[in-house]
Design goal:
With 230 residues, the chain is α+β, with helices and mostly antiparallel strands. The strands form two sheets. Strands 2-1-3-4 form a four-stranded antiparallel β-sheet. Strands 6-5-7-8 form a four-stranded antiparallel β-sheet.
Length: 230
Amino acid sequence: MLISIFRTVIIYIMVIIVMRLMGKRQIGQLQPFEFAVTIMIAELASIPMQDTGIPLIRGITPIIVLLTAQVAISYLNLKYQPFRGLICGTPSIVIKNGKVLEKELWRLGYSINDLLEQLRIKNYPNLTEVEFAILETNGNLSVIPKAQYSPVTLKDINKQPPQVKLPVTLILDGIVQTKNIKSINLSEEWLLNQLKAFNINDPRDAFIAILDTNGTFYAQAKDASTRNNS
């Protein structure tokens, strides 16, 4: 039993490291070759965990080989456009000038129902609102609406927008994020003063405290039951 636990922990840590090295894409954003590598790694990792008779190195070695291959292919994708087209394919226009390209849908094996569903997900329930729709290499659908259906921006009405800043987390579950506070040239004393406006006297009683994109401070206290257990 201890051997199984030990092997499982090692392989788990190994897989986590490999997935981190592969990048930060979500499953829906993976290219086909990246998705294939992910499935193969999951399968290879499960074999030595289930069968303790298989040497651990025989489970780890293929994972490292796949990681190396994936990193090499990703590098070639970045450097050589023809290679990227060969491995990942190219985006396909499925709606052009407001007209659905039936032949392109047929070539891609993409039904009109799939197209309409994706348009609804993108908040375009009416086909007549779409000027262009592009099926990306990772399977996502990009939509460019017709001019009259494009959302109005502040630039369109000649209004100067306020400067947008990155939101900064100052307290998370009662723990002061000292590094974040220093990065915006503020002090913990300033933070304590801001918390008092929200009836929070101790940072440990704060569930969250942030500066939003407009530079506005917001804080929320922990629930009483949570506060007592912390």
